Amino acid sequence: MRQLRLSSVIERRLLVNYRVAPDAAARLLPEPLRPHVVHGYAVAGICLLRLGGVRPTWAPAAFGLRSENVAHRIAVEWDGPDGVETGVYIPRRDTASRLNAWAGGRVFPGEHGMADFQVHETPRQVRVALATRDGDTRVDVTVELSDELQGSKLFADLAEASRFFRGGTKGFSATRSSRHLDGMELQTNAWRVEAGRIRSAASSFFDAPDRFPLGSATLDCALVMRDVPAGWRPLPTMAAGVQSPSPSH
Fold first, then answer.
1. pLDDT in tens, 8-47
2. What is the DSSP secondary-structure string of 112-149?
3. What is the mean pLDDT of residues 220-239?
4. 55 with 63: CB under 8 angstroms?
5. Max Cα separation, the chain?
6. 6-239 has which fold?
7. The pTM is what?
8. Residue 196 and residue 143: Cα distance in Å, rounded?
9. Domain layout of the chain by residue ranges
10. Are 7 and 54 spatial neighbours (Cβ–Cβ below 8 Å)?
């Protein structure tokens, strides 16, 4: 099935970022991907994404759908035909939308599991909690908006963090076959992020000692994106040279 280009509005994109020991991150990556190292650390995190107006690019906005979604991500680089490229590897995606779960990997790239979300938002604070239906992953984070990025060892300031993530808009997702990765690229001419202060964060993915030994993954910072029009472009699949962990949907 031909995969569609999509239009949407990013109503809220909350990035909760961890600084990770590069060797711990590398163990989770299939070839040809390797950790994108910043100031001696790999960068990983949770993307908590509410999309509105999601539709094929040719469809009127009135047909757009809304959904809560989550992606666990590791910033990566790889050797492309024109040099080193950057993006993110996504070991699992989950959604509250049955349509997304059916269409992911069919109509658009990225296989999704199902999750139940609890969301509470004010103009200055966001709390998102979720549990995946397969019982594998739980997340509960509260982030307060801040005037500046503070306490990060990955990024000196908000501008540096914004540049880093704007350079990593290509995402490659694990698939059930483990032989290839699905690719999708975020495209927007209205990129803007705000700094966040993490009030609390728990993640069964990052807190699992078999995946991240004690001390190898530490909360670093949070960023918030709101009300940004965005498109999503399918990318050619990437061959996975080593068996990668299949998404446990």
1. 999 999 999 999 999 999 999 999 999 999 999 999 999 9
2. EEEEEEEEEEETTEEEEEEEETTSS-EEEEEEEEESS-
3. 97
4. yes
5. 49
6. Acetoacetate decarboxylase-like (2.40.400)
7. 0.93
8. 6
9. 6-239
10. yes
